Amino acid sequence: MPTVAIVGGGPAGLSAGLFTAKNGLETVVFDTDETWMHKAHLFNYLGVRSLGGDEFMTIARGQAEDRGVDLRMGEEVTEVAQSGDGFTVTTEEGEYDARYVVFATGTDTDLPEQLGCEVDDEGLVDVDLSMQTSVENAYATGAMIRNQEWQAVISAGDGGAAALDILSDEKGEHFHDFDTPADVPSLSDLPDEEVEDDEE
């Protein structure tokens, strides 16, 4: 059973998954590959001088999987419902129980609305500063919470904020994901494909 189920595999979803998985929480990301990143070219993403959206997604997915994310490409989520102390996520392939759910589906608010998350007059999902919705342990990120602010680095930050709140809740204290050089795997520890991407 995953601890964290993330619906959407763009910058917000992968960022949330990267943080939760690398810090020991079983994490599944459902990705239908409909991210707007396929139409992007990044010049304004901090730390990236120039990178095509498709290439960014390849690197980001590989990074998330390398850190432990169970990436379910092409597996569409059809329903998210509260169940016991968590949620049941239903896909075309089956059902998954998770303690937390993160919605990262761009402007599509259907699933959080079906779950009962509060939505404002503009059709945006209401969240607090940690991206938590009105439904406990359900989070919303990116374009569904920000009117017309469709920006990859903002979405990734939203995903990171949701992940840190989940990690803090799980650990019972404020959690800080801060790696030092001694914590970072060397290039020789990474798969060849990621090493090539990093060196380009």
Describe what is shown at a glance:
The protein has 200 residues and is of the alpha/beta class. 30% of the residues lie in helices and 20% in strands. The chain contains five helices and ten strands.
Describe this structure in words.
The protein is of the alpha/beta class. It is 30% helix and 20% strand. Strand 7 and strand 8 form a beta hairpin. Helix 1 runs parallel beside helix 2 (53-66) and helix 1 (11-22) runs parallel beside helix 4. The N and C termini lie far apart (37 Å). The relative contact order is 0.19. Residues 194-200 have low confidence and may be disordered.
Largest beta sheet: strand ordering: 5-2-1-9-10
- What is the average of the pLDDT values? 90
Strand content: 15-25%
Terminal Cα separation, in Å? 37 Å
Report the strand count.
10
Indicate the structural class: alpha/beta
Q: Indicate the percent of residues in helices.
A: 25-40%
- The radius of gyration over CA amounts to 16 Å
Q: Main β-sheet: number of strands, strand sense, barrel status? A: 5 strands, parallel
Shape label: globular
